[in-house]
Design a protein that fits this description.
With about 475 residues, the chain is of the alpha/beta class. The protein is built from 18 helices and 17 strands. It has helices spanning about 5-30, 30-45, 50-55, 60-70, 75-80, 95-110, 125-135, 155-165, 190-195, 260-280, 315-325, 340-350, 370-375, 380-385, 415-420, 435-450, 455-460, 465-475, and strands at about 115-120, 140-145, 170-175, 200, 220-225, 230-235, 250, 255-260, 300-305, 330-335, 355-360, 385-390, 395, 400-405, 405-410, 425-430, 450-455. Helix 8 (about 155-165) links the parallel strand 2 (about 140-145) and strand 3 (about 170-175).
């Protein structure tokens, strides 16, 4: 064929693909900025743009999750039906938070549960011994889901404890994210299999190296032992989380140990992720033992699963609801702060209503691009009345939210599009003044060790830094 004919064929192919892909974007993309960005890429980069959308723009997780949801494990729905009668927030919790409880029930379809206890365990120094003790005490089952499970001293201790549980006859299941599994080489998955520990990778990555910006990851950090003891929070399994090791990349974090009926909700989340990955259904007394709903404390709590499937934006709506109901205070600790405009506006409006809004962010993050992008928009929050505290190294990976000293959100989610739209996360909401006071004490300690960022400090930055941060912000929906 002549060059003219080739050009005509290529042009026709480009237009046909672009029209088809644009139609898919318009029908299935819910975020207008993402839709406009993809459509621009598709039309301005002939054929290549359409190929990139097919590879990276289609949420295949949601499609496959929909197929699994058809059999969403009837046991998950049965658990909802058999859960203890829903309870209301305690009497000493502000009445305004009752509306928040209604919102989260509608978002998650899980009831609030009474009779829980939750204890904070800080860093790997406290968290890992508590988790290993629970695994060594297991008699029925151990379910572990984590984003990163590195080789090293800490990883070796967990591998040994999991092997001992298997040897004792416990049912053990370990789920590691396909990207997080590549943070150490060779991946620890091979070691677990060698020790006969059942393990699976959540959506294995074809990229032969860790990619912190990869979408649709399982970012949950869950450990459930015998269906009655649970752990969740921000702790991955890696040596850097043990401050006593004194590593240059040391990472501070907060994890939580839970007991009570809310642990069954955590088990259901793990069971669905495991079935999604392996097609094995986990059920029966091994994973949901009799008496698991027994009340062991006074705390009212509920699990909040989130992901790009039927739980889409559950955490975003929960956080928006909590900030909107705040009367006195909103306190946020997060390692990555790239909120969408509605969240920024919610914080600013809360501050202008007279709510005391405090944000604790790392002074030096571990992802430069994310930190630059976050810094670009802090000025609007500060000018709106929010206070931004920059915590000193080591890098703080904690994720905490306390509203009005009575409502607390703990778990794995960051304040960024990756956590609130693109990844699978798991948080727990808690209605308790005493628990909020304990978490507030942790936040107070972080704030004492931080420096307050001011509008003047932001204005005094070199022009090159402002431009760099502004350009980084353009990638906010993808970071």
């Amino acid at each position: 064929m002549t060059p003219q004919v080739w050009g005509f064929v290529a042009g026709a192919l480009h237009i046909g693909l672009a029209l088809a892909v644009s139609a898919h974007i318009v029908l299935y993309k819910t975020d207008v900025r993402s839709a406009i960005g993809w459509i621009g890429l598709v039309w301005l980069t002939p054929i290549v743009g359409s190929g990139l959308y097919v590879l990276f723009g289609i949420n295949r997780i949601r499609r496959r999750a929909g197929r699994v949801r058809g059999r969403r494990s009837t046991y998950t729905e049965e658990l909802r039906a058999e859960a203890p009668e829903p309870v209301s927030p305690p009497a000493d919790v502000p009445a305004s938070l009752g509306a928040l409880a209604t919102l989260v029930r509608r978002v998650t379809r899980w009831p609030l549960t009474a009779g829980n206890t939750i204890d904070a365990v800080c860093n790997g120094d406290e968290g890992y011994p508590a988790m290993l003790e629970a695994i060594d005490g297991a008699t029925r089952s151990v379910a572990l889901a984590t984003y990163i499970f590195d080789r090293g001293r800490a990883g070796a201790e967990f591998v040994a404890a999991l092997e001992r549980a298997v040897t004792r006859g416990c049912q053990v299941r370990v789920l590691i994210d396909g990207v997080g599994a590549r943070y150490s080489h060779p991946p620890i998955v091979d070691e677990l299999r060698h020790r006969r520990v059942p393990v699976a990778r959540f959506v294995p990555s074809r990229v032969p190296f860790p990619h912190p910006y990869m979408n649709l990851r399982n970012h949950r950090k869950l450990l459930i032992v015998d269906g009655v003891i649970g752990f969740c929070g921000g702790l991955n399994i890696r040596d850097a989380c043990v401050l006593a090791y004194g590593l240059p990349d040391a990472t501070r974090d907060v994890h939580f140990r839970l007991r009570g009926p809310v642990v069954q909700q955590m088990t259901a989340a793990f069971a669905f992720d495991w079935e999604f990955t392996t097609r094995e259904r986990l059920g029966g007394d091994t994973w949901y033992p009799p008496g698991a709903n027994a009340q062991v404390g006074e705390l009212v709590a509920r699990g909040v699963p989130d992901g790009p499937d039927e739980d889409f934006e559950a955490l975003l709506m929960t956080i928006l609801g909590a900030v909107g109901q705040a009367v006195h205070s909103v306190r946020v600790v997060t390692p990555y702060f790239l909120p969408d405009p509605p969240l920024v506006d919610a914080l600013r409006v809360a501050a202008m209503r007279g709510v005391k809004v405090d944000l604790v962010l790392p002074e030096r993050g571990n992802l430069r691009l994310v930190q630059w992008a976050a810094t670009a928009k802090l000025g609007a929050l500060i000018e709106g009345g929010c206070r931004v505290h920059l915590s000193k190294p080591p890098f703080d990976h904690s994720k905490l939210l306390v509203v009005d000293g009575a409502w607390t959100l703990i778990g794995s989610a960051n304040w960024d599009p990756r956590s609130l739209r693109l990844n699978f996360e798991y948080d727990v909401e808690c209605y308790s003044r005493s628990f909020a006071a304990r978490v507030n004490a942790l936040i107070d300690e972080k704030m004492r060790e931080s420096r307050l960022l001011t509008s003047q400090g932001l204005r005094d930055r070199p022009l090159a830094s402002k431009l760099r941060d502004g350009v980084a912000w353009l990638a906010q929906p993808y970071l």
